[in-house]
Amino acid sequence: MSAALITGGGTGVGFALAERLVADGVTVLVCGRDADRLALAERMLPGLRTTVADLADPVSVDRLAATALALGGLDLLVNNAAVQLDRSWASADRDALAADIAAELGADLAGPLRLTARLLPALAAAPSATIVNVTSALGVVPKRSAPVYCAAKAGLIAFSAGLRHQLAVDAPHVRVVDAMLPLVDTAMTEGRGSRKISAGAAADGILGGVRRGRSVVRVGGVGVLLAVHRLAPGLAARLVAD
Question: pTM to 2 decimals?
Fold first, then answer.
């Protein structure tokens, strides 16, 4: 790997991935919506490059793509950033619900697709390249409290598979990896669930699977949950219901 863009890399899994890649000599650009958080990430990880971007805003995504292309030699894109908003559809204010939908689908699905489209020509020009879409077991086994997030992750899983089939013919040297995570201990999941894995463990699982050439990387307990889902879908649904 020569140069990488990681979305949502100021904290959590994205920052843990950046730490490991910078240590390996990779030029890493991360983006996020919080300038102060990105500045702190730069201080914590010398050599890291950062830029402010909102994946729900198409104009911001286009600027982010231009910044990533200016790195030169881009051969890794990690679509990691995500927004998860808990909202009761029955009782929520309709305008607030509409805003939530735009924010979640923009950041979690439309933004990654637009960014991938902008960067694919450069990735295809590299001798070899990898697109990692960070998804979730919730895209297969949805939970009650975040239906839009679950729908977006399901869409990203489907996009990963479809794009992989296309590129196997059109650009076989560009790999598409679906990195499916369990519940990870990050700011987004604060106060939610139990049996979380650390951001570092998630990053190690992703990079380990990528380096082993896996197209689908199931991190932590995801494989067990999906096995339960195949055998007893109702049980799997109860395990992640909240």
Answer: 0.90
